[in-house]
Amino acid sequence: MGKASWGVLGLLFSCLAHGAPTLTVVTDVWPPFRMLAQDNQFYGLDIDILRRLQARSGIQLVLKQVPWGRALKQMQTGQADLMIGLARTPERALFVDYLQPAYYQCQPAFYGKPAAVAALHRYEDLKGKEVGFVLNSAYFAPFDDDSEIDKHGVPTEDQLQRMVERGHLPLMIGTDCQVDYALSQRNEAGLVKADYRPPYPVMLYLGLSKHSPHQALRQPLAQALQEMMASGEIAALAQTYHP
What we know:
By secondary structure, this protein is an alpha+beta fold. Helices cover 27% and strands 28% of the residues. It has helices spanning 45-57, 68-77, 114-117, 157-165, 176-185, 218-231, 233-238, and strands spanning 6-7, 10-11, 22-27, 35-36, 41-43, 60-65, 82-86, 96-106, 108-112, 130-134, 150-154, 171-175, 192-193, 202-209. The chain has a five-stranded mixed β-sheet with strand order 11-10-12-9-13. A hairpin with a 4-residue loop joins strand 4 and strand 5. Helix 1 (45-57) crosses helix 6. The two termini are 12 Å apart.
């Protein structure tokens, strides 16, 4: 895509002044927000945003690839300072300070082969259905806690998509900005989106661990994010990754 990339572990800009504050950002692959190139370098919308935030705030950001569930645990203990692409939940809010405003919005959606999604027109049609989801993800209420839906959790979005493609799962839930992009890159099995669209947006945030020793850096980060939103900078960056 021609976008600047960022190593799995490393500073984004080496030209920042020595001794500048440094925060650790833990994250994992989630196209088109965070992707890995063949040289194991991160790129994507979230990476572009982090680069601009670092440049605006003067705060150095070290990016570490960590499985999503483990990243949340590290935020909970204060081993990590920041995560990006976080949906808000009451449980996460106990240890994550969500910097305002949300920088992006997606919609939850259900996907499968045409025969599997044909009967999904309302939420009640999910009852008794087997639906794949990504572990440690938040989609919408009441789905997240609904025991009447046969939910099957897997570690990653890519694994989930492949299981539906191969017929191991009939349906999957995902956020449209991620799954639509993934299907635009690979969809030999002909997966489609169900007519039923939950009317609950998934707002994405930059989150600071409440147990991070760098609470004093919250304000410059939040200010830089607010400036990027107000100027339309993030919206312009996002255009590059539309399917």
